[in-house]
Design brief:
The chain is an alpha+beta fold. The protein has 19 helices and 15 strands. It has helices at residues 19-22, 28-39, 61-73, 79-88, 90-96, 103-112, 114-130, 158-182, 190-216, 278-291, 296-300, 313-322, 349-352, 406-411, 415-418, 442-451, 453-460, 462-476, 487-510; strands spanning 138-147, 155-156, 220-221, 227-228, 230-231, 238-242, 245-257, 263-269, 303-306, 325-327, 368-370, 375-377, 383-392, 398-404, 428-432.
């Protein structure tokens, strides 16, 4: 029978440790140490300190930056855990020179120096360019939904909060009535009474918090000017739909180069409309490319790709005004691609067994216009009269609204295929005069460019460029949830993770 030497990790040793020998060349730790000590200009933090003559010495920003970047690379995000590592982990001790900053000092550094962190990210990008890690061909832009340090329980419109307050008050009254009935009984469990009294206190605090906002707060308006859900815990966060359901959080937007997935620009968007960040992301990426000593003519030739979430009229107009070589598809681009004609066969068996919709309703394209009668003809052959010649929508498009006769719709055999809902008495159709999907418009020009072989080719490389970046940040680095609140603080934390991602590329491909 084989015999092995015994070993145990439950023991302590007193051994001499040289901190400089713990930072091994070619590793991620060495890359961080070299960048912070030799490349970064940390004098940008000096303006925040005025203790040159009086006051206690402050922790060197280089120490805090090193341990934060290294901790983020290990998936350690909370400042308390980072502070604990500085007291127990040899690598953290080597990076800090056995300094032991308090967790509040670490948290303040992460949340207070947004412009300086943005400047350091630009320096890392320029170093990546000097090391030849940027391909100078194409970069892709996309967003990643990340939960925030806020509960969706405290999200809602003014009407939602008003109803929530009434519901809480009813719960309080129900508990009080129960207590009044129990007071007549001799035996009452004291633990139950204590827990219920605590529940009343908590519910009362919640009701007061809601009432305070109802008295002083204002509703949050979306991109279309309509009220959207407001979060009392983190007003900058948004309610967003994801593959995990409805979450309270923000969108981390990034632009990545196609060669080595180097992040060229990163920012946090606190809005469900990703298109709002397109221009700032492109401008920031182009600025960082110029800083990385890439020739201006090469920057102008860059191909830019983005997902359908960035497709909007304003974005397309801005692309044409800036003369960018960009490909931003609309939501219908797969339906026009012949390669997706047989996509149904690749669905899961459970999806293929789902029954098809029972009713296919007529859309506007199935109504024909009779130029002789100057009327719109419905699929059943009935004439529709003009109801509104001056219709206009929020995009500035104008059209004419036609309505069918109530008597025609009442007896029509095709009613079930035309009108949705029993309460609707007649069908209305609006024909747009200057629809952006027809004629020579920014939308049609982008559709034509995108459907060309060049557009399809470059867009096919988009997913392989940007999605690995989000996979690395969320899965490998462990940023599944922001730990801070407020747009500026979230933006700083997102840029720190982008910096960790790029430094990892330097350690792997450039500084072996």
């Amino acid at each position: 029978m084989a015999r092995y030497k015994r070993y145990s990790i439950a023991q302590s040793l007193f051994i001499p440790v040289r901190f400089d020998e713990q930072i091994i060349p070619g590793t991620f730790v060495h890359a961080i140490n070299h960048l912070v000590d030799e490349v970064f200009e940390l004098s940008i933090f000096d303006k925040y300190f005025s203790n040159d003559k009086t006051g206690a010495p402050a922790y060197n920003p280089s120490i805090l930056l090193k341990i934060i970047l290294y901790a983020y690379s290990l998936g350690i995000v909370p400042s308390r855990r980072i502070a604990a590592c500085c007291e127990t982990n040899v690598t953290f001790m080597a990076l800090t020179g056995e300094s032991k900053p308090h967790y509040t000092t670490i948290a303040k550094f992460v949340s207070s120096y947004g412009p300086e962190i943005s400047e350091l990210l630009s320096i890392v990008i320029s170093v990546c360019g000097m090391e030849g890690l940027i391909g100078k061909k194409m970069f892709a832009i996309d967003g990643c939904k990340i939960s925030s340090n806020a509960s969706k329980e405290w999200s809602g419109t003014r009407k939602d909060f008003f109803r929530k307050k009434i519901k809480i008050e009813k719960s309080i009254q129900a508990i009080l009535k129960k207590h009044q009935a129990e007071d007549k009984v001799a035996s009452i469990d004291p633990d139950v009474r204590t827990n219920e009294e605590k529940a009343i206190q908590n519910l009362t605090k919640k009701a007061e918090k809601i009432q305070c906002w109802l008295d002083e707060g204002t509703e949050k308006l979306g991109s279309q000017g309509k009220p959207i859900k407001y979060n009392l815990t983190d007003p900058d966060s948004i309610t967003m739909k994801s593959s995990h359901g409805v979450e309270q959080g923000a969108i981390g937007v990034a632009a990545a180069d196609t060669k080595n997935q180097i992040i060229l620009n990163a920012e946090v968007l606190c809005s469900s409309a990703e298109s709002l960040s397109f221009s700032s992301m492109v401008n920031g990426a182009r600025k960082n490319l110029l800083r990385a000593n890439i020739a201006p003519d090469k920057v102008d030739e860059y191909i830019i790709t983005a997902d359908t979430g960035f497709h909007s009229v304003d974005v397309l107009k801005w692309i044409e005004a800036e003369k960018l070589n960009a490909f931003v598809p609309d939501k219908e681009f797969r339906k026009r691609d012949p390669r997706f004609a047989t996509a149904g066969r690749h669905k899961r068996s459970i999806d293929r067994k789902k029954p098809a919709p029972k009713t296919k309703y007529f859309n506007a394209s199935e109504f024909t216009f009779d130029p002789d009668k100057q009327k719109l003809i419905c699929p059943a052959g009935g004439e529709m009269y003009v109801e509104n010649r001056n219709y206009s929508n929020k995009q500035g498009l104008k059209g004419c609204t036609y309505a069918a006769k109530i008597t025609d719709c009442r007896e029509c055999k095709l009613r079930d295929q035309c009108i949705r809902g029993k309460k609707v008495k007649q069908r209305r159709v609006t024909i747009m005069y200057n629809s952006l999907r027809y004629g020579d418009t920014p939308v049609t020009r982008m559709i034509e460019r995108f459907d060309a072989p060049e557009g399809r080719y470059w867009y096919s490389r988009r997913m392989g460029t940007i999605e690995p970046v989000f996979a690395n940040i969320r899965s490998t680095l462990g940023l599944n949830r922001f730990t801070l609140r407020g747009k500026e603080k979230l933006d700083t934390q997102w840029k720190l993770f982008a910096m960790v991602h790029n430094i990892g590329k330097l350690a792997r491909y450039a500084w072996k």
